[in-house]
């Protein structure tokens, strides 16, 4: 069998798309540690420390916090299938691809879904959700905090109060926002949350941090039927993670070593400095993109800091630009999804990839490729970004 292609052997890629993000070398070293058994006492201690660090990152008080042995999509499914039974009513907000996926998972679990939609590139309005919920009871209200398909940050203010009005739990998708934006499950009244490791945690994909509040655990305990998924049943998973350490599945030991190191890096940097770093680099990128004469798809007050969506200028070939960025500069950015396919680029500055170096790198490369295609920048993008850093 042939070796991997040369660019992959050399790791000649800078990942500035919607995920995965670049992984810190210390995380890769942790993943390469010798494999031990999934019930080895030293590994069980590692699991306990992962839980403690996740609780700190999430602001969790009580409940159950763990890292599922699967990607963020499985975290979404785990939250849904543990909380709902066939015939339950749920209220879900959709302003992009991933709100739609949450709704589809709920339908397949047998829930009756009331869907509230917003225009792509705009957050859901609390009043629209309130109108849909008026006079009705729901098992949960579900929304995406950081919509990866559009680059929108969804405000969480008022959602706990709305959930209380209709007897609902509050479910939040934090796949792209976790460790890149402030997020406190206790202060926000979040009952169930899922994320992934490959975005702002800068760990390879393959694990899904999840949190269930005490309210959610009580709901799961009062179910009349078994959780639809045996593998994602949080009661069975908790028996392994929290005691009595009952065998449920063979955990991805080395991936959890990597997550342990990624979380250690997050907390060593400090949450506030980390959020501030993401914010500063995002603003520098936005300034540079505008200097290039590019239009950003989301109003500034609604933008995700870790992920920016950019309108592709008329006459510019989406795939050709992304292909040249990858082949000539080793830079990966993402294309659009759904109605944004072919007319939008998604540029990520996530975790260890959120740096001044990467802002300059992607702006310089984009300027070169676009100029070759006849798009002239009205201003110097590097100078525009520098003005943000120097302010």
Automatic annotation (TrEMBL):
Keyword Transferase: yes
PANTHER family given in the database record: ALANINE--GLYOXYLATE AMINOTRANSFERASE, AMINOTRANSFERASE CLASS V
Modified residues annotated as N6-(pyridoxal phosphate)lysine in this record: 199
Taxonomic source organism: Engelhardtia mirabilis
Pfam families attached to this UniProt entry: Aminotran_5
EC number: 2.-.-.-
Recorded family membership: Belongs to the class-V pyridoxal-phosphate-dependent aminotransferase family.
Domain Aminotransferase class V: start-end pairs: 36-336
Co-factor requirement: pyridoxal 5'-phosphate
GO BP terms in the entry: glycine biosynthetic process, by transamination of glyoxylate
UniProt-listed PROSITE patterns: AA_TRANSFER_CLASS_5 (PS00595)
Binding site for substrate: 346
GO molecular function annotation: alanine-glyoxylate transaminase activity; L-serine-pyruvate transaminase activity
Protein name: Purine catabolism protein PucG
Lineage: Bacteria, Pseudomonadati, Planctomycetota, Planctomycetia, Planctomycetia incertae sedis
Coiled coil: none
